Amino acid sequence: MNGSTAAASTPAQVAKAGRIRWTIVALLFVATTINYIDRTMLGLLKPDLAKEMRWSEDDYGTIVTAFQAAYAIGFLVFGRIIDRFGPKIGYAMAIIAWTIGHVAHGFASSVTSFMAARIVLGVGEAGHFPSVVRVCSEWFPQKERSYAIGWINSATTVGVILTAPVLAVLMTMMGLDWRGAFLVSGLFGVALLAAWLFKYANPRQDIRVSRAELAWIEHDPADPVRPVSWLTLAGKRETWAFALGKFLTDPVWFLMLFWLPSYFSQTYQVDLKIFLWPMIAMYLLSDIGSIGGGWLSSRLIQNGRTPNFARKITMIVAALCVLPILTVTRLDNLWLSVVIIGIALAGHQAFSANLFSIPADTFPKHAVGSVIGLGGFMGGIGGMIMAKSTGLVLDATDGDYTAIFAACTVVYFAAIGFIHLFSPRLARADV
């Protein structure tokens, strides 16, 4: 280990230095990409599987709901595991679990067996973002943290974009059926596990980190280190500022992830596994939102604005980007719909990058995983409600998405209201 702590230094005395912390971002970027390839494959295969398995929209909604329920519970489990054992061991456990669940899809043959595979996948994948935020709280000072999270969060869309080409390679070039595609793509998770265990260490244990870079990483005031119980965290307003934000906005992302292929297939007779450009355009726009949202709030903080102002003003701008999605179902132009949905996805990702920064802004590092877990649990509950409701609404309205998209335009402003109500200054929680 190079160097000693910079705890005695003030931010004004410490210069930005080093780039090793950005290699950690690169590793988590790849991990996020693989996470989302595994998560997205079922959604792209859904139009074909629905015909083969004779699923109704409600059947598919039930399968998605099973994933959301497991994802919600998994956040609680892995949030605590990561705080207890640290992100290296905790995230390795998550990768193992979600890879097993992903491969299990290749053996599924009914709604029940697909639900079982999605449950294992959901529990494991829930360990991803608690790990990401905990790692960023250890490797980045507050003024860079949302920018780092924004880059990592942008890989969610890279994973979605790459899912179709991966399926094309596996099913067209390699001649695999959908079962074989699930089995072979499980190797991505195996490779990720090896890379994580070999490459990851916290900054004080990484011999590549210079004294100067460690000083920059650690120049925020030191956190107290003492156990924090679930009951204590659940009693903090700052926990609910984050948790309600997740409850309201996570369902929108899951809706887009699991139902957009069906929407475009039904509305424009476009198979997003084959005609890739709409998917690429939408999710590249969302990448711009993720990186731009993280950059904007980080830049505002570096320019002297408070984290409270920077996070919330960026969230308001992001929420405004989602509003035009209300018009999509009245359009008959494929590319105009793609642009509007892409801008809405960009707004979501900008919002999400800043929302994920709030637990690290308001809680000590040793409690961040648990707070993310509680928030992710609430997000999963919201996703369950959205998944089941979407299936029922689409069956009842013969596939009309108008009411569903209308709900998406409201939730971000409601989330900002709750965040401000429960944490008006984003002050540090007293734990």
Overview of this structure, please?
This protein has one domain (14-220, 246-422): Up-down Bundle (Growth Hormone, Chain: A), CATH 1.20.1250.20. Helix content is 76%, strand content 0%. It has 16 helices and no strands. The two termini are 30 Å apart. 56% of the residues are buried.
Average pLDDT level = 89
Distance between the termini: 30 Å
Helicity, as a percent range: over 70%
Radius of gyration: 21 Å
The total tally of domains equals 1
CATH class equals Mainly Alpha
Number of extended strands: 0
> Which second-level CATH architecture applies?
Up-down Bundle
Tell me the CATH superfamily. Answer: MFS general substrate transporter like domains
Low-pLDDT ranges: 1-11
Distinct helical segment count: 16
- Enter the CATH topology name: Growth Hormone, Chain: A
**Beta-strand residue percentage:** under 5%
Described by its quaternary structure, the protein is: single chain
Overall geometric form: globular
Given the helix and strand composition, which structural class is it?
mainly alpha
Main sheet: strands, sense, barrel:
none
